[in-house]
Here is the input.
Amino acid sequence: MRLVLTEFVSLDGVCQGPGSPSEDTSDGFTRGGWLVPFMDEVFVRRAAEWLRLADGLVLGRRTYEAFARDWPEITDPDDPFAELMNSLPKYVVSTTMGEGGWGPVTVLRSLEDVKQLKAQGELQVHGSGRLGRALLGAGVVDVVRLVVAPTVVGAGRRLLTPGEAAGLRLTGHEATPSGLLLLEYETVGAAPAGEYEGVSAFV
Here is the structure.
């Protein structure tokens, strides 16, 4: 009964087009595929473990349409993601989308609709940076899983931009052989703040 935001980000916070130069070229983005050089066995194993925890996927319209185009084309029986990505229930948050063809799919019209779904098990947001940011700001996200690539993309949409603050607590971390950082956080409400009064307060 939790909502998990799973995102691939570069060191400078870009979340756009991690898997291919042609994955997401919106707004003139030409630097896609930046995660691929760092994918390794440990990353694939962990990402597959995460996906197996999902009872459903929550997606924005743009990500849903990209996934609907690409995932049905992956027919390798040994692919650890394709069967689940194609078979899990999808919940698309959109005010403009009609019926989707990559199912099972349900169209949601508001963040409030997402809140109502959380009783159904673990829902995972993949990609969908704008949606993930909105859900985090609305206090709906319970867990943030980040895969941080050791690269500076220098352009593209960032996952976290100026907006609502959120407090996080690190609950897991791992570095893969290729240099990816796998980070897991629980949300803890408001972002804390303090005033530095010297090192004696910390020792």
Notes: The chain has five helices and eight strands. The mean pLDDT is 91. The domain at 2-201 is CATH 3.40.430.10 (Dihydrofolate Reductase, subunit A).
